[in-house]
Amino acid sequence: MSMLLVLNNQAFMVADYPGENAIEVIDKRAGMGGLIRDEAAQRFREGLSKLMAQSPEIEEMDDFIEHYKALLNQPAILH
Q1: For the chain, what are the domain ranges?
Q2: Is the pLDDT of residue 79 over 60?
Q3: What is the per-residue pLDDT for 24?
Q4: In what order do the strands lie in the sheet containing 32-37?
Q5: Of 1, 43, 46, 65, which has the fewest beta carbons less than 10 angstroms from its beta carbon?
Q6: Looking at the predicted structure, is the pLDDT value of residue 34 above 70?
């Protein structure tokens, strides 16, 4: 299984698992994360790609990820 680190800033970590058709999103400030799969993962990829082309501020990332926050329901545990 390959993983591509797409974003890692002070607020978020986003990893893409293309072979699994999944995206992992961690909201570092909230300490929550989740795995987005299938069609939702594809929509997330497309939206994130468009957003990243604009060199977004953290607030813009917040707005984008806000649409997916209901899926970030697992505690993020550092190890």
Answers
A1: 4-73
A2: no
A3: 96
A4: 4-8, 12-17, 22-27, 32-37, 74-75
A5: 1
A6: yes
Retrieve residue 10's tokens: 């002070």
Residue with more model confidence, 79 or 51: 51
22 neighbors 41 (Cβ within 8 angstroms): yes
Instruction: Locate 79 and state its tokens.
Output: 């190890």
Give the DSSP H/E element, type plus range, for residue 37: strand 32-37
Contacts of 45 (CB under 8 A, 6+ apart): 16, 23
Please check the confidence at residue 78 and state whether its pLDDT lies above 80: no
The string over 40-72, giving b where at least 16 C-beta atoms fall within 10 Å of a residue's C-beta and e elsewhere, is ebeebbeebeebeeeeeeeeebeebbeebeebb
Reading the block at residue 71, the tokens are 């899926």
pLDDT of 33 reads 95
